[in-house]
Amino acid sequence: MELQQMRYAVAIAEELSFTAAAARCHVVQSALSHQIAALERELEVSLFARSSRRVEVTPAGAAFVAAARASLEAADRAQVEAAAATGTVRGVLTIGMIPTVTTLDLPSALAAFRRAYPAVRVRVREGRSDEFMTAIAAHEMDAAVLGLAEQTPPRSVAWRELNRERLVAVLSEGHRHAGRRRLRLTDLAEDTFVDFPADAPGRAQSDIAFVQAGVRRDVAFEVMGIELMLDLVRRDLAVALLSPAVVPSGAGLRAVEVTDGPRRVEYLAWDDFNPSPAARTFLEMLPQ
């Protein structure tokens, strides 16, 4: 049994197609099929049920693929650790980034890291803080920038606080309050809002603030992208509560302080259980 055979089996299980698996592994399909057939003869089990139209993983195949993934990860880690012992950092660095990163200049940090360690492949995932904490705890992600309400610090990960800030009201330049210097949440009670999805951590601080103020609000638009949020505000379809750092000056928008508005905390979170050499090196390069 060879590692390459394991890679082929994992690729087939994930693609459910010999053709797609062969393309992914950069090998002709006949060679991949031959290797899988040889592996099945050696194991004396069928890993995949296949016909001319479909491929399914057998129970034996599912058990094998799970163990093969672990073996491949161990082999890759062994190669990375051996290289690190000679001063060469390689492997994969996986970073999570929320849409509203305001404190850490992640692109510049990654650029500096890449220049110093070109053998490391960098994967940046955009998404939600709760998804990133789950991925880090499962050792599927090395580090992430999180944005959370003051009342909900990170869980199941190592972390340090980067910044605390109060969100501002983002209004169209034609909004009735666009000329104000300060607002309270009650001033926005009649407005329609755009915000992150209801179960997203990026929404929690605003929901909490409105509950504490005893004000009900109408969130008619739920989106994940900051640019779309700002465009909806610019078109006078909604107002938003966002970090002042993500609101461009001018551009048909006004950012107004909200004295009792929600407060947000930005964190750097990471996996501190046996981190890879690439992860350790990247975290050491970040400003403290």
UniProtKB/TrEMBL annotation:
Keywords: DNA-binding, Transcription, Transcription regulation. One of its GO terms (cellular component) is protein-DNA complex. PROSITE patterns: HTH_LYSR. GO terms for molecular function: DNA binding; DNA-binding transcription factor activity. It comes from the Bacteria. Signal peptide: none annotated. Residues 1-58 form the HTH lysR-type domain. PANTHER family: SMALL NEUTRAL PROTEASE REGULATORY PROTEIN, TRANSCRIPTIONAL DUAL REGULATOR HCAR-RELATED. Belongs to the LysR transcriptional regulatory family. This is LysR family transcriptional regulator. It comes from Leucobacter tardus.
